[in-house]
Write a structure and sequence with these properties.
- The two termini are 24 Å apart.
- Helix 6 links the parallel strand 7 and strand 8 (172-177).
- Helix content is 28%, strand content 31%.
- The chain is built from 6 helices and 9 strands.
- The strands form 2 sheets. Strands 1-4-5-7-8-9 form a 6-stranded mixed sheet, sandwiched between helices. Strands 3-2-6 form a 3-stranded antiparallel sheet, with no helix packed on it.
- It is α+β, with helices and mostly antiparallel strands.
- It has a single domain, classed as Dna-directed Rna Polymerases I, Ii, And Iii 27 Kd Polypeptide, Chain: A, domain 1 (3-Layer(aba) Sandwich), CATH 3.40.1340.
Length: 193
């Protein structure tokens, strides 16, 4: 049985909410420990579904001609499904850890899923800043000290994908399907097991 578009869409919508993103992180304990305040977890992170970043690169032409560097900015949709940014609940500033969530998409094979993470790594390996949600637009949102991936697969996901993620030592969990179709929950299965 193949992954359905409705399953993917339901998880993307669900994880866009902070409380569901926290539940997701509970399934991979090392990432749960990255939340700055467990007393106020929902104020300790920002979720950005289908995130957009403003990438800043140096203009090599101006550097050669004028001996000064000039930044060129390019706005880019990242190939991850969700960015979870940690922030200080007291000071309302973004901290140095970001988690990129990759939900297995219908008809996506292992190489395509892995390539989305690799492209994200390349994009975020330069100066960048996030286009933040309106409520957090005041927040300083420049590049992170640490970018971590988390993969979400389904019971219907081919076994080669979970084997590949495990072989690449990338953390993943399996989302389980519950009736009715719109309600999904996550069961703990990680690459550590």
């Amino acid at each position: 049985m193949a992954v359905k578009q409705s399953q993917y869409e339901a998880l993307l919508a669900q994880y866009s909410e902070r409380s569901a993103a926290i539940t997701l992180l509970k399934q991979h304990r090392p990432y749960l420990s990255l939340i700055p305040s467990m007393r106020r977890p929902e104020k300790s992170l920002v979720t950005i579904p289908l995130p957009v970043a403003r990438l800043k690169t140096e203009d090599s032409q101006s550097h050669l001609q004028l001996h000064t560097s000039k930044k060129i900015t390019k706005t880019q949709i990242l190939p991850c499904d969700l960015a979870i940014l940690m922030c200080d609940p007291e000071w309302k500033v973004k901290l140095g850890v970001e988690i990129m969530v990759f939900i297995h998409r219908p008809d996506e094979d292992f190489s395509e899923l892995l390539l989305r993470w690799r492209h994200t790594q390349v994009y975020l390996d330069q100066d960048y800043e996030w286009l933040m949600p309106n409520d957090e637009s005041h927040m300083f949102s420049e590049m992170a000290e640490q970018v971590c991936p988390l993969f979400v697969i389904f019971p219907e996901t081919p076994e080669r994908i979970s084997r590949g993620l495990q072989g690449a030592n990338l953390p993943y969990i399996v989302a389980a399907h519950v009736l009715p179709e719109s309600d999904l929950y996550v069961t703990a299965v990680s690459s550590d097991s």
